Amino acid sequence: MTGPPMTEMTTFAEELLAAYRAGTRIAPQGALPTSAAQAYAVQSYLLAALGPAGGFKVGLKPDAPPIMAPIMAARCQPSGSRYPVTDRIGVELEVGWKIVAPLPDPAQPDYLRAVTSCIVPLPVIELVDTRISGPAAADPLVKLADFQINSGLILGAPLADWDGGDFTHLTGRMQVGAQVLLEGATEVPGGSALGTLHALHRAIGDHCGGLQPGQIVITGTIHPLTYVPGNIEVRGEISGLGTVSVSLETLSA
């Protein structure tokens, strides 16, 4: 997949890049994206300046191409890290895949079997925040251009003795401070973590460099996105996969 050249999106992309670099939010003055192609062109522009990609997030929609966004390598941190928060931040517990070898051709019929020798699963916490203020922050294509509002990714330990099985129906727990966001049975969005990886691989092509060994692919939250304040501990667990945690710390004014 390749996006169109940066033309009318240049001003918006430069505004967004400035917001990333300053750690602030902006009310964009430039023309906003009106198509997924324009949003992906902005992603490519941003990653060229902020990259490399440490992974990708993907969302599946019925009867539509998957939506996808790179996750900056600089914002991928190990479990137990401290992560700065300006005011509030969204948290999501997800199944992730670490790519450990070049992936097979996404068109091959036995992809779901072949890919298991190239990946290992791990629990992750995605951190979600926008770089946009004002009404534009709710625009789906603006969110897509803004790396689908990814703020960071916290990585649990890869599962050392994975048997190659898929993740579909899960038992999990997600807690923020004293608030329990998830406890008990849940499901991977779309019903298959391997299927979500395959959908992304079929769609991504060379967008933002494509999928590469060492990167992480995340497969969607297993509980509703929840925004929480800083100065709080977040801990997630997926049965049979492991635990992951992060300390959210409010930045001083």
Automatic annotation (TrEMBL):
<dbReference type="InterPro" id="IPR050772">
    <property type="entry name" value="Hydratase-Decarb/MhpD_sf"/>
</dbReference>
<dbReference type="InterPro" id="IPR036663">
    <property type="entry name" value="Fumarylacetoacetase_C_sf"/>
</dbReference>
<protein>
    <recommendedName>
        <fullName>2-keto-4-pentenoate hydratase</fullName>
    </recommendedName>
</protein>
